[in-house]
């Protein structure tokens, strides 16, 4: 491994001693803790061998521990066999190990030099580094096939939907807080506006989900502008307080405007989404009947899962794209230094408003999804704690990092689920865990910033301490 | 007749700026000649940066008129515009900066500025800094984001042009090798040059530099002189600068305005100002007849 590192360092042209040292250090850091057979020469073969050995170790460990379970039965202990999870563990270890050796640990050796050296102009996802592309494809492929995997029962599908909803909300808020640096404590207001827009349009005008979805987004974006105007001149703590108040105002209006929103009783009978007009029910025109399947309620859940998956992916890709466009760069510049922005002729008012409106629009989409999934909404779903959780996700993940948000959402959701039995101590433990994470990584889990445009192909990530946090 | 009298790009008249009871700038009038390097000098607290902030719109002047003429303009036209209450003339030639917000001054009046304490976007790369400076052009090229999202050809062309302009300036400030490094990682002198390049990427007519040579070593100062001359001679940009480094000021300035306590005490070509007894008195704080003796001391 050391050998190939040296070679790649030499083959790259402009390498100072410093960079070389850095690379070597990185190579050492990246060394797997116990390499069975270092990948040299035929890298793939070696990685495969390494992965097989790891999988065998996993099998040896998981077999007795997970595969065989003793249970008290009448007349003594009985042994139950449980091989599905073992197979899953072994598969995860095998593919995970293979993936890590090939794309993560191996990137300091030959694989890294595959990176195109030319300038990459297209503001799409093309600037992701090497190991991220297969990682991204793998992750998306997994989310697409997930509903058909053996473990995916009703519980797991619900969890996946919740995780994706929060990812979408986190990504939406990330535009405002992470990119533009505007601390928004009232994000749930836009979630509520989206949900109520959909619910009211659907129940009063008999419109379907797909018609209401864009309208809910537009309405939420409009409310984003309405919030944006009064807070343009505010910064930091003052901005946070006003946005917090805005979130509460929306909730209190929903509670008290009984004629319009049905107040605390909420709105029920919100229509379920349909697949090109095909409902997911037992009727003869239902999805199951038309496609000749046996009716099962999970079909609707899987459909909902795909809707939120598509919405979340759209949010993610649009945000990534916007970051590489002038408007996204202006957001980040605003976070770094507002006065410098103005001296360059950037209309900071418009820039802030577009950030608020874009974030609010994604919140509105997520809100209408929430309404159609639940079928019933009430103001109780839109309390300030929701705003705080979404903000916590963004801060915990690392301001501006899309991947960090996913990790933070999965962490928080898992923590909430695992600790469900501890009842009132749950929040205490989750809070403590968050404090510890913030002490360990003050700038969030993924805190580096990737340049939105590069001259020489692959640019280094910008260190967290250089990136501004925004004052507004 | 000098250029700043016959064809001024910037005309400042009766500019007064009060902060409560403090008069930072008092009835100041001067002009900046088209294609000249003009320096504003003066002791600490003379109101130089305040004048800059008034010109670039960061302060709203208490009194006075600040007008920019993108092409040659005569004073009566300017007066008619002032009386009309509008902020720019119908042909968009004359713009009254005292009536415009800061970002419009940069965008429409083509006045770019740098700051005394460098204000780069530290967490963004050198190249990104230069792209942010071309924001308005790129916004149009991206059809205000819509065309950019779909990657239309017009946007790709606009982006390629922006990249060419950025590369051009990076080559002229010798930072092309560091284009992908975070701006905050650059040494101080490079950051100063980058800030000038960033201002130049907005394609200004008038470049305002607030103490560009502060903190530079002699070699870097010489580089700066070269860069400013290049900007004036090759691009025909008028430069207005505040500076304490007399080596820089006397060497490159075509025209010097001296302020003291918010008032203009001298105005003219470098040689005339250098020998103006009022200037010497203001800088050295002594009676005129003692100046020679003190100068001798300072030299040693």
Automatic annotation (TrEMBL), chain A:
The keyword Cell cycle does not apply. The keyword Nuclease does not apply. Keywords: Cell membrane, Membrane, Transmembrane, Transmembrane helix. One of its GO terms (cellular component) is plasma membrane. It is found in: Cell membrane. One of its GO terms (molecular function) is branched-chain amino acid transmembrane transporter activity. This is Amino acid/amide ABC transporter membrane protein 2, HAAT family.
TrEMBL record, chain B:
CDD domains: ABC_Mj1267_LivG_branched. The keyword ATP-binding applies. GO terms for molecular function: ATP binding; ATP hydrolysis activity; L-isoleucine transmembrane transporter activity; L-phenylalanine transmembrane transporter activity; L-valine transmembrane transporter activity. Keywords: Amino-acid transport, ATP-binding, Nucleotide-binding, Transport. One of its GO terms (biological process) is L-alanine transport. Residues 10-286 form the ABC transporter domain. GO terms for cellular component: plasma membrane. Transmembrane segments: none annotated. The keyword Transmembrane does not apply. Belongs to the ABC transporter superfamily. This is Branched-chain amino acid transport system ATP-binding protein. It comes from Bauldia litoralis.
């Amino acid at each position: 491994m050391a050998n190939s590192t040296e070679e790649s360092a030499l083959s790259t042209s402009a390498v100072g001693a410093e960079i070389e040292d850095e690379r070597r250090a990185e190579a050492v850091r990246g060394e797997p803790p116990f390499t069975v057979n270092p990948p040299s020469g035929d890298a793939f073969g070696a990685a495969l061998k390494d992965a097989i050995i790891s999988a065998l170790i996993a099998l040896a460990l998981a077999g007795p521990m997970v595969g065989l379970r003793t249970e008290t039965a009448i007349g003594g202990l009985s042994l139950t066999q449980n091989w599905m999870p073992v197979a899953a563990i072994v598969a995860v270890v095998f593919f995970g190990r293979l993936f890590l050796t090939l794309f993560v640990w191996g990137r300091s050796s030959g694989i890294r030099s595959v990176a195109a050296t030319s300038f990459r102009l297209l503001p799409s996802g093309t600037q992701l580094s090497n190991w991220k592309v297969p990682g991204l494809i793998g992750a998306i492929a997994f989310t697409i096939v997930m509903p058909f995997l053996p473990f995916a029962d009703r519980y797991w599908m619900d969890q996946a939907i919740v995780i994706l909803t929060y990812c979408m909300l986190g990504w939406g808020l990330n535009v405002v807080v992470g990119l533009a640096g505007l601390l928004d404590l009232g994000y749930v207001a836009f979630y509520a506006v989206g949900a109520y827009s959909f619910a009211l349009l659907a129940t009063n005008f008999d419109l379907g989900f797909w018609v209401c979805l864009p309208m809910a987004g537009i309405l939420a974006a409009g409310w984003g502008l309405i919030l944006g105007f009064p807070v343009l001149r505010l910064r930091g703590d003052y901005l946070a307080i006003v946005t917090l108040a805005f979130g509460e105002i929306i909730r209190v209006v929903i509670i008290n405007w009984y004629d319009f929103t049905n107040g605390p009783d909420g709105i029920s009978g919100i229509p379920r989404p349909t697949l090109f007009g095909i409902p997911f029910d037992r009727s003869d025109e239902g999805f199951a009947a038309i496609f000749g399947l046996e009716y099962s309620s999970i079909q609707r859940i899987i459909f909902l899962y795909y809707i939120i998956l598509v919405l979340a992916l759209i949010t993610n890709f649009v945000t990534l794209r916007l970051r590489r466009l002038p408007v996204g760069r202006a957001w980040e510049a605003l976070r770094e230094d507002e006065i410098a922005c103005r001296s360059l002729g950037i209309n900071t008012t418009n820039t802030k408003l577009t950030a608020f409106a874009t974030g609010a629009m994604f919140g509105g989409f997520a809100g209408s999804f929430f309404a159609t999934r639940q079928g019933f909404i009430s103001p109780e779903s839109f309390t300030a704690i929701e705003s705080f959780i979404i903000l916590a996700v963004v801060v915990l993940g690392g301001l501006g990092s899309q991947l960090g948000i996913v990790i933070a959402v999965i962490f928080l959701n898992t923590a909430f689920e695992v600790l469900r039995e501890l009842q009132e101590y749950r929040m205490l433990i989750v809070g403590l865990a968050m404090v510890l994470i913030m002490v360990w990584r003050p700038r969030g889990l993924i805190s580096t910033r990737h340049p939105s445009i590069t001259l020489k192909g692959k640019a280094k990530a910008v260190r967290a301490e250089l990136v501004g946090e925004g004052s507004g | 007749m000098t250029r700043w009298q016959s064809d001024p790009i910037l005309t400042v008249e009766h500019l007064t700026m009060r902060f409560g009871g403090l008069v930072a700038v008092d009835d100041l009038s001067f002009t900046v000649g088209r294609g000249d390097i003009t320096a504003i000098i003066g002791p600490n607290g003379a109101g130089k940066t305040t004048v800059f902030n008034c010109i670039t719109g960061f302060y709203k002047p208490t009194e006075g008129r600040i007008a920019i003429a993108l092409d040659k303009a005569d004073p009566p036209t300017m007066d008619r515009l002032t009386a009309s209450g509008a902020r720019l003339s119908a042909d968009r030639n004359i713009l009254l900066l005292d009536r415009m917000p800061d970002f419009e001054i940069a965008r429409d009046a083509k006045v770019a500025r740098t700051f005394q304490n460098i204000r780069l976007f530290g967490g963004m790369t050198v190249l990104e800094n230069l792209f942010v400076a071309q924001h308005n052009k790129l916004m149009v090229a991206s059809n205000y984001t819509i065309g950019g999202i779909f990657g239309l050809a017009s946007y790709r062309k606009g982006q390629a042009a922006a990249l060419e302009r950025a590369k051009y300036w990076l080559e002229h400030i010798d930072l092309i090798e560091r284009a992908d490094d975070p701006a905050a990682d650059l040494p101080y002198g490079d950051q100063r040059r980058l800030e000038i390049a960033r201002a130049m990427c907005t394609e200004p007519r008038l470049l305002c530099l607030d103490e560009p040579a502060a903190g530079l070593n002699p070699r870097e100062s010489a580089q700066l002189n070269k860069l400013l001359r290049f900007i004036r001679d090759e691009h025909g940009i008028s430069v207005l600068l505040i500076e304490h480094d007399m080596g820089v000021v006397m060497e490159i300035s075509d025209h010097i305005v001296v302020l003291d306590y918010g008032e203009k005490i001298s105005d003219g070509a470098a040689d005339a100002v250098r020998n103006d007894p009022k200037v010497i008195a203001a800088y050295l704080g002594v009676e005129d007849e003692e100046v020679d003796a003190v100068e001798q001391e300072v030299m040693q």
